[in-house]
Inverse folding.
């Protein structure tokens, strides 16, 4: 029997459900070196927190995140609140010696993210670990893409194209949510979806962005207020019913060109206005010897082009990334059986627990999260200066 | 707090893992009227059973399935053993008043299946429920296909084409497993994959097959014996290493044409020899007003053709069946987030528990399972008589 | 300047247009050893024949096909009439020393086809060539598939699946055409579309079918008579407007299982009732080392699966068969530029002219056409005897 | 019999073949109001010009383009030379009263294009017509996309994404061609492929670009000199064999964000470095009521998303744009039969001849071509000023 690892989850929206599922399922499929215990769920509203805890299987609840930080019997603080509160909670937790898993984007500002990365660096000296939750790295297909690129299968990288296309704001009557308010969400689609493609592009290519030229746009600048605060994490779907409207204070389209540290150019688009695209996180990396191409709407597949084989047999190979030898897959089902969105979260806590047990720093670190925040900030600054090229950091 | 529903799972191969995951996860996403408890895991080998129970979270273990049947504190017997043992266990469980969920195919022979259906009918009079586990009915896309067809969206059915294509026997050195031995598996690909497409085609069309013309074939008639019995449920992947070989006593390709009760023709192919097809359960139903088309390798999608709209806009619409209004989806993630293979099992136990709580017969019933068995038997008989048309039953 | 090759085209429906385009275009892209001259167009109605000749660029016209056979200044008789007249015209032409290109299916009956093959054999001794027009062999993707299979790229063949799906008869009010009358068309979808997949499957695999088990069905047995005879070759699209109806005397669905000469099984479906499938001729060949898969609706692509490479990179490769090294492609456009349906006809006359100039027998020969006719006949006989297995020939 | 329209074609590379095929084929399928005659082919090298004329069917040849302009018996000058010579030839032809069809991009500079547009405007007063050859507008799928957008099927436009991806420069040893030399080609991928997506995006949306933020890049700055000048129009494929290298003086990647006249944002990428993408001109337009999506590698299809129908049936509909009611299709084959790359050129001359006969200005006009040139120029200027937003014109 493994030693327990007692988890407190702070927040219980959409990400709370995903993280809860991950903590519950991971030890059933992966041989974790520590045994996660779903100890404490924290939320602002006692009733709703209790209901979520009952539904998802958390033993205790609290309405005060400081309890998670201060209790002796908590080992990990898992943060899934809106970005504005990440810094305060994470820094307190790290200073209290708790390992921290924090949802992306790391924070709402570079300053916050810097403080968090500093806190993580200090904590690391005491064996306390911190990780930011870029879960899309953990899908078999994206990890396989990274492995192929790192192994030289596509040669030298020529170009990157990344996009994250959703359409839930196309309807001008889709309601306002905290994700559309600058003071809560920090930014709009840039921080939400843009952060994902920045991280994934950097992860798969193994290169950091060094400068950007960007444009931000708000196509619909006011929306109906929702009937209630809602616990849906802001990804509504319903139309607003009231007549009161509130201002959309964030971008709903973010476009930028980025240059990676070795000069490679990449195109990036994050949007909630791509009609008909439900969750199309797409990444294509072109190289001198091949290419990889991924689309989250078909997450069990990776397209791979081998430029080195016989010319008459070349084409994009649609790899169904469900073979036992593919990353993470061996722990699940026999070949050919699809995984889903939530499996990335299972892999995430698996990797996190493994790192915690080993006392080794997990990846992506808070420093990585800070660097993504710096890219986001550079895009914002570039957009404010006629899209002129702006260095990262 | 709901009343508990205490489960005993008999068997712990690949299907044991899938069912365990379903019992664990279902109450976390669906509001079940009874609270499943993972009480007892039964397997032949004490050590391996204990290991599986620890991994999957079953409270107790036994090496004797009769314990599951006889214990007072068990409400449901969930059977995931090879087909040869289904009848004995299921009938005993039903007679002992246990609700039964039994993996497909219901049995290895029509006689066994008939006895099981009879036992289920008797038990039903006492409010004891029985269901056979055709899990592919429970995917959002397949249920949506059924709903569209039942609602008239494709008009009168013209034709059905069904196939279940896998390739794990293409390699002649893939090892022998119980799935390739007639005395254990009953039949080969016909009963394993063929049963799925028979059930799914009948479910989506709402029609039963009444006669068939079929062909069975064994392309590789001996294979290396595996190193050990293995707990993988027979879907190996490894190549055999020893020199000893055993006879393959079942079909590895099953082809048949079927006629449904209103005369509609369908084509059926079940094979483990379709190179490159990993898990391609495909169903297409053509009708006078439209068509639906599904492929399990892309299980979050349903293709729908509307023959009634403007001619210049017609085509197959690739519906991403991940919207809140789609079957089962509302309980999971926001729109656009993919589900996986295992979710069908979660839906299966959800529907089963709901029926048990309501005291209403779940579907597909053992009678449905028997009818599928009769189709399988008719195919076998047709194949033995020069593929001549053979009535079902 | 090459020696002229004077062509007479008999018939001017849909196929007449396709063949005319082929004769006109082939010498502009391929270096033909003889210079085709579009000399004579033959049709029953003088006015419509003259109009077609003017449109398509034929120098002279006639209403009597015997003129094509008897004139000294005609070298080739190209036959695109309905099947019932193929034998008489082709045999007369061959006996008159004309090279013959005859549309598929070769004839409406085995007897006719036999007489034609005999005539072709006699003519061949005098250097007179005959070819049957299975044009789908001549697409770059299908020829490439054949080359891959012949070169061992998929190893030993395990299975074949072939289908030709159209939907122009789904509407019960689609008009009657000569293609739906037994006395003119010989058979229905079996001879029309079924002949194509028989030929293509045999061509790509390099194997002949030796026995079949088949089913034929007519789903709509009467249809409105068209307003006029029409020159559309019977592929209407319009709905009938009159109230008079005529009997459909041919099959609209043909299903069969076939066994090739080395025992390989194949499934075949030809239908005009596959709602939403416009021209889906599909062929997949599974082998021990790989697979090829083709769909005429995406005719510039061939899917190829290589079972011999690294397991983690396997998948169907979507080869865009538009590279200079691919069959026929070098004569056309730079890499990546799509060809269309009609290009197969251009390749057909190119191959035909090349064979005629070389004095070597073109392929597929009339004997090949006869063999396809025998397969069709065997399917019909099998269908009449409860789908029992029936030898070919 | 229609009045003749005597054509002179100036240039005989890749585009010469495409235009020749168009002139030859168009009158065979479309009922043109004038009868094109392929009168004169002009090229610099007498021998190669004569060979091309013989191959493609031009009656006469010349090595001096002024002959085409000066001869009384020429009605149309069709210009397919490299961009540097467009202005001189086109202006002379227009001043001589010849109708002009000029390949895209209209010119190498805005100054040249302005002079050409001015000349066209003057000529138009005398009934002399001028058109620029953006052939991709003329595919059934792209024209259908425009019609859908213009008819309101996608509502108000939200976003545009356009890309033209090729990979023939990925290999650093691919030879230098005139397309890679600034003095001949004017620009690199921007003018060649970028011009296409600018025109197509503007055509389908019905909106002009008003400002851009762009980046140009040359990834490989020297390449082997080809063995000979070649007649391939610069789309080699072969690798250079010699040791001598020449400088690549144009961009091979062009990225820009554009704003249309009503504020809509679009992303644009033109590249010859997208490994595995052979001819992927892609355009997606997102609107409040739907979306259209096109890829030239699948040119017979248009994806259409209808945001107004039942939510549970929404998805991208893959329209096979081969029905008789689709643009241009009725003149060709029955439903379901694919067209190819060259058909766009046939449609182009059909539309051109129709406009000439009607005495009405064809579209796209030289003024349209100038506007595209202005966009290209703005991208270049933006790229030179840190990608800052730069007005068009």
């Amino acid at each position: 029997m493994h030693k327990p690892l007692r988890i407190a989850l702070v927040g219980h929206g959409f990400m709370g459900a995903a993280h809860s599922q991950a903590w519950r399922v991971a030890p059933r499929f992966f041989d974790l070196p520590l045994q996660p215990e779903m100890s404490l769920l924290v939320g602002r509203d006692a009733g709703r927190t209790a209901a979520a805890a009952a539904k998802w299987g958390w033993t205790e609840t609290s309405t005060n995140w400081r309890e998670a930080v201060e209790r002796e019997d908590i080992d990990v603080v898992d943060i899934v609140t809106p970005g504005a509160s990440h810094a305060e909670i994470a820094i307190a937790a790290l200073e209290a010696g708790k390992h921290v898993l924090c949802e992306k984007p790391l924070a709402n500002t570079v300053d916050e993210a810097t403080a968090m990365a500093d806190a993580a660096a200090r904590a690391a000296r005491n064996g306390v670990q911190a990780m930011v939750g870029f879960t899309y790295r953990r899908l078999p297909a994206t990890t396989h893409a990274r492995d192929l690129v790192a192994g030289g299968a596509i040669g030298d990288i020529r170009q990157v194209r990344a996009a994250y296309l959703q359409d839930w704001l196309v309807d001008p009557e889709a309601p306002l949510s905290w994700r559309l308010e600058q003071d809560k969400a920090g930014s709009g689609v840039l921080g939400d979806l843009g952060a994902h493609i920045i991280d994934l592009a950097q992860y798969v290519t193994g290169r950091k962005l060094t400068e950007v030229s960007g444009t931000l746009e708000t196509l619909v600048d006011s929306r109906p207020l929702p009937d209630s605060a809602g616990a849906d994490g802001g990804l509504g779907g319903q139309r607003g019913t009231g007549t009161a409207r509130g201002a959309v204070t964030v971008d709903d389209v973010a476009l930028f060109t980025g240059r990676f540290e070795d000069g490679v150019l990449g195109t990036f688009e994050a949007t909630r206005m791509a009609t008909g695209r439900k969750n199309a996180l797409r990444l294509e990396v072109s190289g001198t010897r091949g290419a990889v191409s991924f689309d989250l709407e078909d997450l069990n597949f990776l397209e791979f082009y081998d430029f080195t084989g016989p010319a008459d047999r070349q084409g994009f190979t649609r790899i169904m990334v469900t073979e036992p030898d593919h990353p993470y897959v061996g722990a699940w089902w026999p070949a050919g059986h699809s995984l889903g969105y939530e499996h990335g979260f299972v892999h995430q806590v698996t990797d996190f627990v493994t790192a915690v047990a080993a006392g080794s720093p997990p990846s992506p670190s808070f420093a990585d999260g800070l660097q993504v925040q710096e890219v986001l900030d550079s895009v914002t600054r570039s957009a404010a200066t006629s899209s002129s090229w702006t260095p990262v950091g």
Residues 229-237 of chain C have pLDDT under 50 and may be disordered. Residues 138 and 383 of chain C are 31 Å apart (CA to CA).
